[in-house]
Amino acid sequence: MAVVECLDVGLTTVTKSAMSRGMNRFVFLVYSNALACALLLPVAAFLTRGTRTRLGFSILLKFFLLSLVGITAMQNCVFAGLSYSSPTLASAMANLVPAFTFVLAVIFRIENVDIRSFRCQIKILGTLLSISGASVVILYKGPRIGSNTWSLHYTKSLPPLQSSEALLETVPGWVIGGLFLGTASFCLATWNTAQAVILKDCPSEITLVSFCCLFGAFQCAIVALAAERNPKAWRVRPQVELIPVIYSALAGNVITFCTISWCIHKKGPIFVAMFKPLSIAIAAIMSAIFLGESLHVGSVMGAIIIVVGFYGVIWAMSREARTTEALDPPHSSSPLLERGNQMI
User: Fold this and answer.
1) For all residues of the chain together, what is the average pLDDT?
2) Measured between alpha carbons, how far is residue 160 from residues 29, 91, 165, 178, 280 in Å?
3) Quick one: how far is CA 320 from the chain centroid?
C-alpha cells in the first residue's frame, strides 16, 4: 500500500504536468481505462481458467455501478480538481478518505457507535478533525514556505508548468478544486467499501478490476463525447499524452487497482485507508521537484490536523479490537471451562 501511494501521487503529478501542456482530461481517461482493460482481461481469463466463477447479470450490474462510482465519477472529479489546483492539494484532500470510510461503515452498520464510550468519542472527534483539516487546506492557502515574502495574500508568480492555470491563484479556483477533490475522496471511500461487499461474491480481484476498467472506458467515452466536440482532441501526441496514458494504465489502473482490491479482500477497506496520510508528504516532494511548486502554510496546517484526526480514529479502533479479542478469545480447550459450561 505504501508503494501504491507513491504510484498514485506520481500519477497526479504526471497528469498535472501533461494537462498544463494541453492534454484533454476527458479523452485521457478513455484511453487510459481502455488500455488497462486490454491488458487485464487476457490476464484475468488466464488466471481464472478452470474456475467456476459465474458472471451473471447481478454481478455485472454491480461491476457497472462500481465503475460508475470508482472510475468514471472519481477520476473525472480528480482531474477536474487538478485542473484548478495542484497534486499537493489532491493528496491533502485524499486524507478525507479514512473519515468518509468510517462514516460509511457506521451508516451501513459495519462499525458500531456507542456515544458513552471514550474510544467512540475519540473516533468521532478524529473524523471531525479530518474534515476540519481538509477545510483548512481548501479555504486557507497562507504564505509560501521558503519564500522571503510572508504575506497572507495569494502570490501572483506561477511555476513554469502552470502558466495557464491562473485560476489556481484565486480563492474561487482553489475552493472549486478542493470541492472536486473532496467529492473524489467520497467516491473512493464508497468504492473501497462497496468492493469489500462485492468481493464476497466475486473472489477474483483481477476479474473485478478488469470489468470495472471495461465499463469505465465506455462510461468515460460517453462523458468525453458530451464534453469534447473537437475531433482533434482525440489525437494522441507522443510528446504530451502517450507517456501519461501508459503510466496511468499500468501504474494507476493495473497495479494500483489490483493491489487495492487484493488488500481490501484480505484486510478490509479500513486497512487501505490507513495509508492515505502518506500521500501528502510524497506529493509535496514530487510537486517541488517536477512542478516547481512551493508548500504553503495552509496545506501543512491542514495536513497535520487531518493526520492527527485520522490516527486518533485508528488508535481507537485498534484498542476496540484488542478489547474484543480479550473478552472473546477464539477458542479454548480448557477442561475447567468446558466443565463450567456444562454446569451452567
Assistant:
1) 77
2) 25, 21, 10, 22, 22
3) 26
Between 19 and 278, residue with greater pLDDT: 19
Question: Is the pLDDT reported for residue 70 higher than 50?
Answer: yes
* 296 phi/psi in degrees, rounded to 5: -120, 155
Tens-place pLDDT, residues 213-239: 999 999 999 999 998 888 888 888 887
Query: Beta partners for 296?
Result: 144
Q: What is the pTM of this model?
A: 0.74
Record the cell numbers describing residue 219, joined without a space: 462510461
Q: Sorting pLDDT into bands at 50, 70 and 90, what band is 275? A: confident
Residues in Cβ contact with 13 at an 8 Å cutoff, skipping those fewer than 6 apart = 87, 283, 286, 287, 290, 291
